[in-house]
């Protein structure tokens, strides 16, 4: 599929993602993470956005974080808290599809996706200047997981790959959205991936395509560089802020970012033998030869 066809198909696919990815208001404020540093990030000669930066006392790595459609970075306090605890600086741009972006109505679904990738390129460039010696990973939720996977090499026609990104952590990835996420979407991913979802992470039909819970594992089932997948019993699309179930994801998330973000061989051995809570499912796939 050439780039033109992919971009045309993106209109329908992104519409579907837009309807399913926005978290309900009033959630995602449980974990105290402090106020971020906020700077104006120049994305292009004609556009800037806000970049939110949470920095631990002793930074060891960098996370480029992409939010779900319509959402904003402060809403991911639980996950950001875990990443900060592991010594990662978290840099999260305010995407143009966010409910908090002041000119949101000027962007179509097609343009908002390409602008997301532009946001992440600008964020990565800022990280390289501000934290030049720290290793880099990408993370996201829902539409932000797709964005983060592009930084690792997914959907290569969109040229989202950022070479500094060493691994991708995703919660509740998009399913096989027609046109946007074809069967080959993740065959070009060049870095290890960890996908976290739940047995109730099913979404109703949008644009004629329903997303069963099993489809959120698609990246972990097809990315070739080695993948991990955690399926939490009863977890839904808001697992990333589920006060009861999110804690069951913390141990493998910590091991993954230590293993593949910080290059900790001991953490990798522990991750490969980690056992989930009763009722949850944990799988791993070795890198393809």
From TrEMBL:
PROSITE patterns: TAT. InterPro entries: AB_hydrolase_fold, TAT_signal. This is Alpha-beta hydrolase superfamily lysophospholipase. The keyword Hydrolase applies. Residues 1-30 form the signal peptide. Keywords: Hydrolase, Signal. Transmembrane segments: none annotated.
């Amino acid at each position: 599929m050439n780039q033109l066809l992919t971009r045309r198909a993106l209109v329908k696919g992104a519409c579907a993602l837009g309807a399913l990815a926005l978290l309900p208001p009033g959630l995602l404020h449980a974990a105290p993470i402090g106020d971020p540093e906020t700077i104006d990030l120049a994305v292009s000669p004609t556009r800037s956005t806000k970049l939110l930066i949470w920095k631990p006392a002793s930074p060891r790595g960098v996370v480029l974080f992409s939010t779900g459609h319509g959402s904003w970075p402060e809403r991911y306090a639980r996950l950001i808290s875990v990443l900060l605890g592991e010594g990662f600086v978290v840099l999260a741009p305010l995407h143009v599809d966010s409910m908090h972006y002041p000119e949101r109505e000027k962007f179509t679904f097609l343009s908002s996706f390409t602008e997301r990738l532009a946001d992440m390129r600008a964020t990565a460039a800022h990280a390289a200047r501000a934290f030049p010696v720290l290793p880099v990973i990408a993370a996201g939720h829902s539409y932000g997981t797709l964005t983060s996977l592009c930084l690792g090499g997914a959907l290569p026609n969109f040229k989202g790959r950022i070479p500094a990104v060493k691994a991708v952590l995703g919660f509740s990835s998009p399913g096989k959205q027609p046109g946007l996420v074809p069967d080959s979407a993740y065959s070009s991913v060049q870095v290890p991936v960890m996908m976290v979802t739940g047995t109730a992470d099913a979404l109703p039909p949008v644009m004629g395509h329903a997303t069963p819970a099993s489809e959120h594992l698609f990246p972990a089932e097809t990315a070739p560089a080695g993948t991990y997948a955690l399926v939490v019993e009863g977890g839904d699309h808001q697992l990333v802020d589920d006060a009861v179930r999110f804690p069951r994801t913390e141990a493998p998330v910590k091991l993954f970012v230590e293993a593949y973000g910080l290059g900790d061989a001991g953490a990798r051995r522990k991750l490969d033998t980690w056992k989930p809570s009763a009722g949850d499912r944990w799988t791993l796939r070795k890198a393809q030869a």
